[in-house]
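Residues determine shape. Next comes a sample protein:
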Amino acid sequence: MRPTVTISGGGLLLAPLRRFLSLQLPLSRIIAPSPPGRRPIRRRSRHLETLALAYNQVLIPTTERLRDLSADYAAFNPPTTSGSNATQNRYLPTLQSVLESAVVLTAEPTPTNYPRARSAYYTRDPSTGDFDLIDKYGRTPPPRTKIPAVDVAGAHMNAILTGNLPYWADGTPGKVSYLDPAGTRYKGVIAVPVRAGSELFGVLTVDAPDYEDFTQAHVDLMSALGNILATSLTLGGP
């Protein structure tokens, strides 16, 4: 079954996003079946590759507009406490759906249908600059629970968040995982900022064993998922 992203809070403000997500393209329409006993092979025709890329390029500006609209709405209707502190409240169902979508809609599963990808969401501790794991989904082993600010990886995640740009470790020179540069556990990584207006929430990541597990369409998809999470955090605080 295709995962759905449930948005909490916002009422009519998020109705267009719900309708848009209902058009989500099933993974089985993009990835052709493989012979029994063999790892699935990505066999995309040119028009399906174009469709996947166009789908994500349309989704990004749509979610960006909704994210920015939610930030404007929250500025005039501030919650009682900051959404950045909402770690056990109404945004959690959205976070769980986003993490599941990041795994199911990117790297194909194993022949036994076990996830090959692993997603995680980290928030930045404003007092220390450390990044703390809030939740995860997908394959084992689990991601690190804390990434200190003094680590190279912590500095890199801070640059992603403050610079407001996605990062894709695709194997080209200099584009590797800052947590596992040697690629002993995984190689492909996508990390995107989760932020709205002046509010810097954290970083959403997904990784997989091989560089070839991800494409530019997946980077666009992750950026859109980050926008969805930022919208929910802005509107769904306690």
About this structure: The domain at 12-235 is CATH 3.30.450.40 (Beta-Lactamase).
